[in-house]
């Protein structure tokens, strides 16, 4: 028995035991028991994942556990990455949940579902057969649905979000089911090894159908356009540690599925598959971050940012597939390594951001940026944590996302000379999309941090906020440490990630690292995040020192803060999230299509005198409006038509039965 | 865009030739500014007559900017205040704060008769007094409203060019 197997067994056992304990222990200690149990389960998952990345493998078959297909479990380096990420997020979320759950979330149902959700998410990536995979996938979806609905008695929007999530995740499941069953139908059995064997001699067209169907399902889980509609609804309404788990661990499995099916089971496939993945990824990245920049709801902003980051990951995956199909496996390995590193980085900083957003929500009861502000003095640790997360998400050095986006850009740029018209067009466009995304991401997170945490409080709730309990801060601290380590020393994880990518694509390692520097194999390019951070720090110190020296020579005087002479300044005069986003909204007017309404009410005496002016502006999700609303309206119309058949009269229903029997008899007579 | 360029080329330079530099003595504080004066305009209760003339002085015909003066958007950026109108009760405190916000060395120019001695508004219920009653004034421009030439001359006194 090796660490990979032992870790997984411990993780499953601890997770299931904590779920059972949640049912049995009294209310006061339930959150603590479940939190500690989930964190231990996560830690065991991390150990198992690291073992699997290092090449340890195992195979477990439990034919009696599930009827017909049985349960088979195995691990390879690719599943190790996702196992470790899920486990690490679960550690932070579990510790955080101890303090967070005290406020009305310590109910039996939510606390039982939480460890089960972690276990199911970990099991999805080690499933070795279609049956196991789908059962774990569904278990994960159901547990997360229960958790999203945890606060449904407090806010009616939760129920709406839950409905969207339930429908979309099950439509996704149906798509995956169709794809995998078509593949399994052409194989001798439903284990992944048999599918791999069968994929080598699939009839033409079948592989395309399999990939497209699974792509639809996995893309909807990853929040990729145009199947993202559930994500900005469910993430804000879920409790924050659940949002962190969903956004940093669960959506990753969409990427896992695409990589597993595309590269592993189907063995690469045609180039247009990956071009499609790349285009979807680039569109999601740009659209997601634009919506995030427009959003004034803190957690909705983070949800859209998840769409953006998953888009970037898929750009890397798509580029890897395109390079692999043209035979450039080293470059493909680099692109896939960049994608996986970005996925890990995203997990670290998104956990941190969602947990700090939860801390704000916990203290103020509001997610609306235009009602927050001034939290720097009352919640210093949360502010520092969110600031760190915002820097990490901004793709600026020394942030966490910078390293992986740099790698991604290197892969795309070095891919330019690769053969083919599609590549020659796709790569520059992808570079532009990644660059635009990085720029808008900076604006979004400056908005979230500046408006939400700095300046003066905009509401009494924000003014009276108090710092969160220690367990919540500890959860944020763990995620923060992970984000800092990934930002300054990516050399610790990059060799492993590179070897995983190489293993998945059967190529050589794409990156070479020493203690501080990352070098690309087979292409010119090197980066030392630690030295870069030190140089930045030195430059800042130098600039501050020079300013201080220059300031000493002049006489100082105390002056009133300039308030246009009118004073005193109030929170109403501050820059709001809406006004901060307004210039950007103007620039991207054609993409976003904002709606503005101006209602002018005149006085009764004269049309020339204005009594009141009302101004409303909203930026609706355009894709939702164009794609979902017509479908929903059509379904509603069919429902109304169908209701005419069911009037409530028993006679009529008996009549239906009678006529149906007659019709069947007539049909049978005609056919026979 | 092209039409704008054509218009600019066709119109050419419309500024009048520079009159000889004024003979008036330069305030001591202006000497430290080195010939470049950033000006913040404050309307302390004017009828907007003086504003029109200030606008003309800074327009293309009189073009006072060629002598080193410039209108700025905040007293924090300014060397001098150009105050118009009698100081109304509502503008007393803002005017005082604006003056305090200007970094030293600073200058105040009272533009128009109202700014000098309240003009026709002297004794009105909303008027707190002339500009000199609220902040120290270095230079006065008489006239109701003063002609742009007079404003140009006063500004040239400040810049010394």
Notes on the protein architecture:
The complex is a heterodimer of chains A (672) and B (161). Chain A is built from 26 helices and 7 strands. The mean pLDDT of chain A is 86. Among the domains of chain A are: 270-533 and 574-592, no CATH class; 622-671. Chain A is globular, with a radius of gyration of 27 Å. In chain A, the strands form 3 sheets. In chain A, strands 3-4-5 form a 3-stranded antiparallel beta sheet. The termini of chain A are far apart. In chain A, helix 1 packs antiparallel against helix 4, helix 3 (77-100) packs parallel to helix 14 (329-364) and helix 13 (298-325) runs antiparallel to helix 18. Chain A has helices at residues 3-24, 27-53, 77-100, 108-126, 130-148, 156-185, 192-199, 206-222, 231-237, 240-250, 252-265, 271-294, 298-325, 329-364, 375-378, 380-393, 400-414, 421-453, 460-463, 470-488, 494-505, 529-552, 577-587, 589-592, 622-645, 650-671; strands spanning 59-62, 71-74, 511-513, 518-520, 526-527, 595-602, 610-618. Chain A is mainly alpha-helical and 672 residues long. With 161 residues, chain B is α/β, with parallel strands linked by helices. Chain B has a single domain (35-159), classed as 3-Layer(aba) Sandwich (Rossmann fold). Helices cover 35% and strands 17% of the residues of chain B. Chain B has helices at residues 2-11, 28-31, 49-57, 89-101, 113-117, 131-134, 148-159; strands spanning 37-43, 69-71, 80-84, 87-88, 107-111, 127-129, 139-141. A 5-stranded parallel beta sheet of chain B has the order 2-1-3-5-7, with helices on both faces. A two-stranded antiparallel sheet of chain B has the order 4-6. In chain B, helix 3 packs across helix 7 (148-159). The longest helix of chain B is centred in the middle third of the chain and has 13 residues, at 89-101. Chain B is globular, with a radius of gyration of 16 Å. The termini of chain B are far apart. The model of chain B has no long low-confidence stretch (mean pLDDT 91). The A-B interface holds A 557, 559-560, 562-567 and B 74-76, 93-95, 97-98, 100-101, 104.
